[in-house]
């Protein structure tokens, strides 16, 4: 897409596809989109999220689920935090939906 100065966006099968490897987080896509939608948003499975967590586990002190109304995705959040507890010594904090001590 010509709107992205870093060629991080493409149209594939009528959908915008974001390439994280070349994206510079300049937010040009957000500024150019009439709805200010981000092509960087993506759906992930619990395993996909865990893959990202495992890569950064030494640098993570906690995980918070937010954005919109997280409780509308309650089965996913429960499955995610159940899985996160299996990584090192993570524990669920009494603070709303926060995993601490990773």
From TrEMBL:
Q: What Gene3D superfamilies does the annotation carry?
A: 3.30.70.20
Asked whether the keyword Metal-binding is assigned, the reply is: yes
Kindly state which keywords UniProt assigns to this record, in alphabetical order.
Iron, Iron-sulfur, Metal-binding
PROSITE patterns hit by this protein: 4FE4S_FER_1 (PS00198), 4FE4S_FER_2 (PS51379)
> Does the keyword Lyase belong to this entry?
no
For the 4Fe-4S ferredoxin-type domain, which residue ranges apply? 14-43
Listed InterPro entries: 4Fe4S_Fe-S-bd (IPR017896), 4Fe4S_Fe_S_CS (IPR017900)
In the record, what terms sit under GO molecular function? iron-sulfur cluster binding; metal ion binding
Q: What is this protein called?
A: Radical SAM superfamily protein
Source species: Escherichia coli
Its taxonomic placement starts with:
Bacteria, Pseudomonadati, Pseudomonadota, Gammaproteobacteria, Enterobacterales
């Amino acid at each position: 897409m010509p709107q992205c100065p870093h060629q991080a966006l493409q149209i594939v099968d009528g959908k915008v596809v974001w390439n994280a490897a070349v994206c510079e987080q300049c937010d040009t896509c957000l500024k150019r989109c009439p709805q200010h939608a981000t092509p960087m948003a993506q759906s992930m499975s619990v395993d996909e999220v865990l893959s990202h967590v495992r890569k950064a586990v030494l640098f993570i002190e906690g995980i918070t689920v937010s954005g919109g109304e997280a409780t509308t995705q309650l089965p996913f959040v429960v499955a995610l935090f159940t899985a996160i507890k299996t990584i090192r010594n993570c524990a669920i904090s009494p603070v709303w939906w926060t995993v601490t001590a990773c």
